[in-house]
Design goal:
The chain has 342 residues and is of the alpha/beta class. Helices cover 30% and strands 20% of the residues. The strands form two sheets. The protein has a seven-stranded mixed beta sheet. Strand 1, helix 1 and strand 2 form a beta-alpha-beta unit. Helix 7 runs parallel beside helix 9. The longest helix has 16 residues, at 149-164. Its EC number is 1.2.1.38. One of its GO terms (biological process) is L-arginine biosynthetic process. The active site is at residue 149. One of its GO terms (molecular function) is NADP+ binding.
Length: 342
């Protein structure tokens, strides 16, 4: 059994991680921390876990994480980088669901996240946890930087085109939409029901902190910097990401075959039949990314549609997928949930 600790178990990604891990046959939950809810039973805060989790939240200042084999950080940006080195030094592996170790250029990270990095020496070691790209590195890793929700959907959508070298990488466009849970469980005016319901808006157009992460990932596959216009939107739904991706085609290619061949062995990437239009509800509560590729009117523009659940493949599910790979378990163990409908 893998003895697991969770730092920050009260946010949406934290409770999603709990939902998945309590059903995992090879996991034993040891510690779940929360400064604000210390001493409260996990199932008191989250009745959905009643009968599944007997633990109480621990104060992170007092919790003994060294008893764990693996610790997940489901915390705000800037927390994991303060504690990871100490854990690694005593042999505990770490998966960070925040952004502390995703961007290799530390100065770039500090610019976008507005703080000084506390463990720059670990950034180079951290493996970016996108299994469809870094599976072999993940197997050997002790520190995983779990990808962001938008970056997962966007990169998986663009990767076959980028790797094949058949599109203009200087002028890529990612038009993306996310449910309100992507903003986290904290109270903010823009995610209040009266603000977000019956509404649709873009945000972060001048620059969003997921932009350098996506550029880094796509640039590594194209072996040159990419030009990307990335525009996120907030939609009046709880879960889900829909990424509509645009690229100009440079070479004649059977796009459907390209995508099917690229992802034929990927358990959580589902390439839909030609002409399909994936819906966010088709992945709700699951670790799947569903993709459809189009070439409107047979022109030179490729349009890729990529949908995920931002809390699962975009966060907690992908983190558990990485854990399975790290420990040599079947990659789908504990995370092959059928999507919820309706």
């Amino acid at each position: 059994m893998i003895k697991v600790g969770i730092v920050g178990g009260t946010g949406y990604t934290g409770v999603e991680l709990l939902r998945i891990l309590v059903q995992h046959p090879k996991v034993r939950l040891k510690v779940i921390t929360s400064r604000q809810e210390s001493g409260m039973g996990v199932d008191e805060l989250f009745p959905s876990l009643r009968g599944q989790v007997a633990l109480k939240f621990s104060d992170p200042a007092q919790a003994d994480l060294s008893q764990c084999d693996l610790v997940f950080f489901a915390t705000p940006n800037g927390v994991a980088m303060q504690q990871t080195k100490k854990l690694l030094d005593v042999g505990v592996k770490v998966i960070d669901l925040a952004a502390d170790f995703r961007i290799k250029d530390v100065a770039e990270w500090e610019k976008w996240y507005g703080m000084q990095h506390a463990s720059p020496e670990l950034v180079a070691e951290a493996v970016y946890g996108l299994p469809e790209v870094n599976r072999e590195k993940i197997r050997q890793a002790r520190l995983i930087a779990n990808p962001g929700c938008y970056p997962t959907a966007v990169q998986l959508g663009f990767l076959p085109l980028i790797e094949a070298g058949i599109v203009d990488v200087d002028h890529l466009v990612a038009d993306t939409k996310s449910g309100v849970s992507g903003a986290g469980r904290k109270a903010e005016v823009h995610t209040l029901f009266a603000e977000a319901a019956d509404n649709f808006k873009s945000y972060g157009v001048p620059g969003h902190r997921h932009l350098p992460e996506i550029r880094q990932g796509l640039g590594a596959r194209s072996q040159k910097p990419v030009g990307l216009t990335f525009v996120p939107h907030l939609t009046p739904m709880i879960r889900g990401i829909h990424a509509t991706l645009y690229a100009r085609l440079l070479k004649e290619t059977d796009l459907q075959a390209l995508y099917e061949e690229r992802y034929i062995d990927e358990p959580f990437v589902d390439v839909l039949p030609a002409g399909s239009h994936p819906q966010t509800r088709s992945v709700r509560g699951s670790n799947f990314c569903r993709i459809a590729v189009h070439r409107p009117q047979g022109g030179d523009m490729v349009v890729v549609l990529s949908v995920t659940d931002n809390l699962v493949k975009g966060a907690a599910g992908q983190a558990v997928q990485n854990m399975n790979i790290m420990y040599g378990l079947p990659e789908t163990m504990g995370i092959k949930h059928v999507p919820l409908l309706p």
